[in-house]
Structures are given as C-alpha cells and as structure tokens.
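Example record for the data management plan.
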Amino acid sequence: MKKIDTPLEGCYIIEPRVFGDARGWFYESYSERAFAELGIRTVFVQDNRSFSAQKGTLRGLHCQIEPHAQTKLICCTRGMFTDVVVDIREGSPSYMQHICVDLSEDNHRMLYIPKGFLHGFVTRTENVEALYKVDDFYAPECDRSVRYNDPAFAIEWNETSPILSDKDRNNLFLQDSDVHFEWKKDRT
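Corresponding structural encoding:
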C-alpha cells in the first residue's frame, strides 16, 4: 500500500497493491496493520455505501460535527466520481483549501479524510457506487452540510447542472452555519 500526501494537512490518497491476471484482480482495501505502517492509526467502526444512478449527481458538502466528527476512507467500487474535500479546521496550515481527486473502479484509489473536513463528490459516469469507512457512528444530531457552491471555497465542480437533493440545494454557506472545527496536530 502506498500513501500519497496531498496539499491538505492529514489528507492522503491511498493506492493499494493490485494483483491481476487473466481472471481479474485482487487487492487489500483496508488492513489495520498496513495503515499503521503508513502512520495512519484509525479504527473504523462503520461502512457506508451510496449509489448514484445518473451522471452529474452531486452529493455534498457533508460532515458530522463534534462530539461525533468522523474520519473517512472513501473509494469508488463502480463507475467514477470526483471527490472533493475542504479543510475547515481553523488554524490548519491548509485551512479553507480544497482538493479534487478522481476515484474510480479502475484506478482503485482511496481517499483518507480526517475529522474537520467537508466532503462531497460529483459522479462522472452513470451507476456509481461509493464505499466509505468512518471512525464514529452516524449521529443525526451532528449531521451537517454546507452549500456545495459556497464562493468561499471556489470549487470547480466541472458540472454545469448538477443533480442535487433538496437538502444539498438549500444548505447554508459556511459563514452562516454552525459548522466549526479547530485544528489539532495530533488528530491527523
């Protein structure tokens, strides 16, 4: 397994070793031991899956606030999407910066997203499945979303007419929301 740093403090692209032959391929998508060897010591407690039927479906920007903030490990098991994460940890060296990473069933890449980040994605193909692990259980009282097109982020989604849920279409901008995180070096 390979860990690739991103411009966002504590956020990594993970590339597994893929073993393939004429029958197909195999790879280890998660190993507590392998992640520990990479310096990532996160205990995941829940797996989530999502399915998006239409190309151009945009989900985000989502997070859970304290005391149930979540670290995520996300991958694409079918199709392709562009994953977007925004560092909103006040005091972080990468505060208010974002990255866009293409995840697909073909590139097998995963994205490790620490607590204190907003997360979303836009599908680039039809029939997209996402799988992500989280290190805290879903807590509806801590579930939050911020407007995907908040000008404070200047995200280029490269989708002129995204397909959105009513919730995502009507989210507040970050400055008007109660979403707040502070950066702590030891949390990443």
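Summary line stored alongside the record: The first helix runs from residue 32 to 37.
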